Amino acid sequence: MTSRLQIGVWLLGLGLLVACDSSDPKPATGGGPVPAEFQVGETTFNANCAACHGKQAAGTDHGPPLVHKIYEPHHHGDQAFQLAAANGVKAHHWEFGNMPKIDGVTPENVDQIVKYVRWLQRQAGIQ
Ligand code: HEC
Does the C-beta of 62 come closer than 6 Å to ligand 1? Predict the structure, then answer.
């Protein structure tokens, strides 16, 4: 017997599933567009850093999120980004292994990347 009650319970379950989905963590930007001034940084980041640090610097299996308290400006200033790209990083905060130096980027590219990452951090309430 398929009563209205059963259908009602089924619909309720479906509703809960949908509700749970929408409470998944939002991307740092809240899904909003990246302001024009940070788009060069975003493109450069996606091309050179996102393979390990993830889309929107949210982290992957190969590298940590840069949108993280550890990387706020007071702990890792902009110079830390320049040094990381130029020389690589010896693993010290995480267990992902070392970061290789990134040959494809100039200091100007890294400046743009830092602006983008700082913006992501601000969106996430870090700083
Ligand atoms: C092949 C993977 C990989 C790529 C590509 C990569 N990183 Fe990293 N990065 C890492 C890992 C792993 C760490 C964490 C090391 C630790 O502290 O354990 C790290 C750490 C960092 C840090 C922290 C440095 C510090 O002083 O602790 C910065 C900043 C950084 N990366 C920026 C970048 C930028 C900018 C790019 C692109 C130009 C980039 N990374 C590309 C893997 C990568």
Answer: yes
